Amino acid sequence: MFFAGTAGSVPTPRRGLPALLLRAGGDRILLDCGEGTQQQLLRSIGLPELDAIFITHYHLDHWLGIVGMLKTFDLRARERTLDVYGPPGLKGLFHNLKPLIGRTFYPLNVHELEPHGEVRFGGYVIASFPVKHRVDAYGYAFIEDDRPGRFDVEEARRLGVTEGPDFGRLQRGETVNGVSPEQVVGPARHGRRIVYTGDTSPVQTVEVYAHKAEVLVHEATFLEDDRARARETGHSTARQAALAAQAAEVKLLALTHLSTRYFPRDIRDEARAVFEHTIVARDFEAIDVPFPERGEPRVIKPEPEPRDQ
Ligand SMILES: [Zn+2]
Ligand SMILES: [Zn+2]
Fold first, then answer.
1. Cβ within 8 Å of residue 118, ≥6 positions away
2. 199 CA distance to ligand 2 centroid (A)?
3. C-beta of residue 87 within 8 angstroms of C-beta of residue 57
4. DSSP classification of residue 51
5. What is the pLDDT of residues 164-209, one digit of tens each?
6. What sign does the dihedral 88-90-95-96 (CA atoms) show?
7. Ligand with an atom nearest the CA of residue 219
8. Which residues are catalytic?
9. What is the spatial distance between Cα 84 and Cα 94, in angstroms, rounded to a whole number?
10. Do the strands 278-280 and 2-5 form a parallel or antiparallel pair, or are they unpaired?
């Protein structure tokens, strides 16, 4: 996953408006698309041919970038279908944007998701869940399918199964010559899970969907000193985000949607006092999320000079 923008509400010279790119297999999925997202991508990894865009809610800082981006895809002669998902209201929004976007030559599908919706991709789903903001807002969870258990080749040989088609039968759950699958195939392994909250006050659904997630990307718009203001505006403090990460037992907490009023290190320190494995995401930083048995999520720092376009 790649952070294209980590500011909240207003951009700064170093932080763009919210946008998070998920790279799963060959798929490129964008979560939120703040104003300037296409420039942010062009300045870093290039603007990929996105497969889908998921919008958390319709505050301007989370979707305005979609207008220019859709147009750019058109000018690039894109042919592939693009699916855009969001809470109810997305169709009305696109209806109002029609005079700006015009007709695209590529198929553009707009889908309003249920509060507990699910969109299936190859090997994983993106699930929507309701969060608590001033307007209807969703968080999104990337939930990878469970993987079959490990096949114990030596044990299978020892039990007299010959290598070849019989191995495959066992792996598919069939009994072969009196040897049952449970004897040689380990328990199913959980797929990876990445959760993005969008804008939200503390809410139970985040803890539920982020349970044992590899990475929780949580907004941290305020510090505890401004907790009352966080509540009024439907946002979280760094400490509240850390408490959610702790309750959900995630591996890594990445804070985003930063306000210009604080130093990032103060945000980080407040969260780390509760939850040690916390980073404050920076623009153009990526997090590599390997299978659990191959190690922990790893932060990849941006290159010092963004590529010139
Ligand atoms: Zn926002
Ligand atoms: Zn908002």
1. 125, 126, 127, 128
2. 5
3. yes
4. S
5. 899 999 988 899 989 999 999 998 888 999 999 999 999 999 999 9
6. positive
7. 1
8. 61
9. 10
10. unpaired
